[in-house]
Amino acid sequence: MPKDTSISSVLIIGSGPIIIGQACEFDYSGSQAALSLKEEGIKVSIINSNPATIMTDKVIGDHVYLKPLTVDSIEEILIEHKNNPELPTIDAVLPTMGGQTALNLCVEAEERGLWKAHNVRIIGVDVAAIDKTENRESFRQLMVDIGVGVAHSKIANSFLEGKEAAQEIGFPLVIRPSYTLGGSGGGFVHKKEDFDAALKRGLEASPTHEVLVEQAVLGWKEYELELLRDSNDNVIIICSIENFDPMGIHTGDSITVAPAMTLSDRCYQEMRNQAIKMMRAIGNFAGGCNVQFSVNPANDEIIAIEINPRVSRSSALASKATGYPIAKIAAKLAIGYNLDEIENQITKTTSAYFEPTLDYVIVKIPRWNFDKFKGANPELGLQMKAVGEVMSIGRNFTEALQKACQSLEIGRAGIGADGRQKRNIEEIMHGLEHPSWNRLFLIKDAMSMGVPLESIRKATKIDKWFLVQIQELVALETELKRYNLSNIPRDFFFTLKQKGFSDIQIAYILGNVTEDEVYQRRKELGLTRAYKMVDTCAAEFPAQTPYFYSTFEEAPQQITANGVQVQGNNYGTNESIPSDKKKVIVLGSGPNRIGQGIEFDYSCVHGLLAAKETGFEAIMINCNPETVSTDFNMADKLYFEPVFWEHVREIIDLEKPVGVIVQLGGQTALKMAEKLHENNIPIIGTSFENMDIAEDRGSFSDLLKELDIPYPKYGVAENAEEAIKVANEVGYPVLVRPSYVLGGQGMSIVINDEDLEKAVVKLLGDLPGNRVLIDHFLDRAEETESDSICDGEDVHIIGLMEHIEPAGIHSGDSSAVLPPYSLSDKVIADMEQYSKKIAKALNVRGLLNIQFAVKDEKVYVIEANPRASRTVPFIAKAYDVPYINIAAKVMLGVNKLKDFTIERKLKGFAIKEPVFSFEKFPEVPKELGPEMKSTGEAILFIKDLEDPYFRHLNKVKSMYLSQ
After folding, report:
1. How far is residue 939's CA from residue 944's CA, in Å, rounded to a whole number?
2. Which helix (H) or strand (E) holds 659?
3. DSSP 312-346
4. pTM here?
5. Which DSSP helix (H) or strand (E) runs through 451?
6. Phi and psi dihedrals of 231, rounded to 5?
7. Rounded (10°) angle between helices 464-480 and 490-498
8. What is the pLDDT of residues 617-672, one digit of tens each?
9. CA distances (Å), 555 to each of 533, 569, 574, in order?
10. Contact 637/548 with Cβ under 8 angstroms?
11. Could you tell me which residue ranges the ATP-grasp domain spans (predicted)?
């Protein structure tokens, strides 16, 4: 069936601020869906309260509403569109792109009769399907009716029913609340004594106060299938995903692999049949769907765990893994198209009714932030705790696994062989039995210490095939120790690289050689990466989209694609042919984590768009599957690779760009600046030397002194004794922090020598080789910040923000008001003057963020960051000015600030509200300090300072300030 022409205007519901369990994968889906509908000439309105995402930018939607995600907000939008002749009347709502938040909101609006009252159709799903899948008892009964296996379970709406169910099923069991996200409120109960507390938590977490009490299939294997279905009842499987971790760990906290590695063909075919049957049974909708299964490793018995009638966390991963844009196609199916009427977005010659085929392996590893939640239980279970994830692509499992480890931003050079190994066998075995963020590394450590593979399998319940693969890496390391750099056989060196070993790992195993020496040696041997295209169809049809990953390949072959001769070398064929255009590389921000979230991806996307608009070929390097920057049609060329020096340098070797943009990708990209500088690779925008002055506290303070700008007294220490001496000189309370950190990592406020000694010893233990900065803490000061753009001649103040909370609470955890609401004219003038002075003194080309403390009308500079900040996207949305686009064009040297006419459109004030995920860590106190803890943010517009919400925030502003 062709497009439904009665739909001309669609409302997409977003997912709101980033929280654990619902991250930027839904902004990726929402952005894709919006662009897909706009291609069809449909007007797109978006409601979402998240200012940090590209989804709420004017490049994505025709009408963007940064409003709280409530039914009342939706009603306001529908009425506005009905009554304003300049706006299109909304015909339909698409709720399947905004995660659980959007689905729950859609159901609530339906119950209140909103859609019917405004003649709005729900597309992409139907409410009956949501109810069948989210209501645990309805889902269980439906599976029984259609002959799909499920775990033995009973529904409970009260303590009495819960206890009866537990008595009937027996322990261990699982509690799964209805209508929750990321496993919230769920968990395993191993013994009777723990049941009452777990049942109470589940009943309270469910918005309908309903839980499913279910038999626990601990140790079974877990799989996911991503499906699409059209209104003609055609269903295709986009991707099979296997969890490396067995049942018992939330899939968002599991390492996952695509395609499924250990599934027999018979079992896979049965799983496909059941998934299709399930999707057809839940309603008459067209769109995406995610199905989770569990398989008994003893006899291949399959049971269904759940089905989500929407794009899911895994949909983003599956889209990036296959090159098949699930959300984009799902949006087209929602407006009436059938699969065979839509073209494959990568080949452009086949239809979307063509299941992707993978000739490579994908590995996803979650990224956790337990270091930010002191006292949190780090053991993984049914409730998701990861804040982000990385994805890697390799030609075999171990290559992809090692690349994923390199992507994580936790200082690992691969899986082990990097000096970070554990040696305590008791600690290792405990970690295998009680999974946490480091279990993968502990498996390798156990094998290196000679623990038998079968003992590891029994402790972890991880399939033997995966363990054998990791064991092979241990054997390769042992063999490598027999050689030195000059006599490693070329074939063996090649095998190491094929298995994902980084140059720095090889240098570590050999000892007494550097990463650069290993790199030079393999170059001499002709061992360079071959770049392969992600083409959805294992090269059966030529791909038109430049989306690449790297590998090491033997068979030299010359192939011709569309008449283009593809270059080969002794070791494989490179499918990425550099053009002769002037090109820039944008370094991405890696995995989401606290302190570095989706706002940096927003900046990267605008950097790519600005580069393309000004005639550059824009090349993206990033490894985060959740984001819009890694959409294959956002950059001119996408390298889905770790933002890890070895990978970055080889892409630069191949592409030879005019420069690299490091300002937009947060600390991940910034950390590359020194390496780029050492290797004479041009950095676009502010130079490394000037960025380094801002990062180095001593140099920066010298600069402030020279400029006659006030700053808190400070000192630098390398041990606890020096720290105590400095603290007594600058005066307590003091702020203690390591140099070169992001998101306030390791920062604390201390008030005496004893606390200071503890803090310094811990910091230097966590970050060996670092120096500790000790600043006098300006107690009861106000914190403010400025963002600006400098082109070398002029400085434009993007915005000044005043924090509601006092200095001492990390700026990312503070509610902040734009423009300032209580600062005197003198303070504002000083902030602007200091911003301009510092921008010129650092010779900034592009963006600059400065944090200030204001006490007794005196403005002190706390720190300056010559890069994109967490706040620029917020200010861009509030003032309705594309600041990152302007800054990128200034960085690239294409424009000066005077070329732009900048008009701010804000009436009243905008408040940046931090959003926390403390409910995932009930044991962690909700106090705030200099180390950032928020996972996301929302924007709230107020007319004036009499707003009751603002007055409430102002009243409680100091309450949560802690150390």
Report:
1. 15
2. strand 659-661
3. -HHHHHHHHHHS--HHHHHHHHHTT--GGGSB-TT
4. 0.93
5. none
6. -75, -5
7. 150
8. 999 999 999 999 999 889 999 999 999 999 999 999 999 999 999 999 998 999 89
9. 16, 9, 11
10. yes
11. 140-335, 701-892
